[in-house]
Fold this sequence. Notes:
By secondary structure, this protein is α/β, with parallel strands linked by helices. The chain contains seven helices and nine strands; from the N terminus they run βαααβββββααβββαα. The protein has helices spanning 7-37, 41-69, 74-81, 137-142, 150-167, 204-214, 219-227; strands at residues 2-5, 90-93, 100-104, 107-114, 118-123, 128-132, 177-182, 187-190, 198-200.
Amino acid sequence: MKISNNTQLINRNKKISQAVLYLSLALLVLGLVWSLTSQDVTQTQFSYLILIPAYILVQVSIFMANRWGRTPRPDEIIAQSLKGLPDQYTLYNYSAGVPHLLVGPAGLWIIKPYYHSGEITFDDKKSKFTQKGGPFIISKLFAQESLPDILHDTRVAKRQFGTFLEKNQSRLTIEPRVVNIFYSEKADIMARNAPEPTMSSEKFKDFIRGQAKQNPLPNETIKEITSQLLAPE
């Protein structure tokens, strides 16, 4: 399998995530020191004005660290889970309009990775993914481990890909499909009724191979698709 990584973007965001983390920690320490040592109302109020943006920056730093600072990163986990696929496949990481895109005999797939634990199901009545168990509520709140709106993420990803194709004046007519990958060892995926394929990262390669056997894309079509996407940087 070929891999197209936007290494410039990855390295830049990794540095930014580290800078945001250090800044948020510095502001937290400063705000706490001021609040504990304050002897007048004005200084106490000012310390809160520091703690509030510090808390926001902590949340931003956690989000960025999960995507860019954690090792292995989501793109590395996806690449590892697909290791062994033939060179007919190309995995685009941050280089084709969406964070992760796979092109090959199995078709055109937008990959959405999630690091969430617990039992992941799909509620047909509410038309949404749900999470049972997993981390305590404190971890869900402060470590951002509560499950996001996955179907909303899909709509955003498809719009991003459509914008990318339009910007690059692409003539691509194949509609991308979406797959959700959970890479936490503590995730139990029970969502076969979901409108999108949803599975653990360990099962992803077998899924792709199965899709390729059902209705494989011709090599000519694969070459046409890859020719209209950005080349590796």
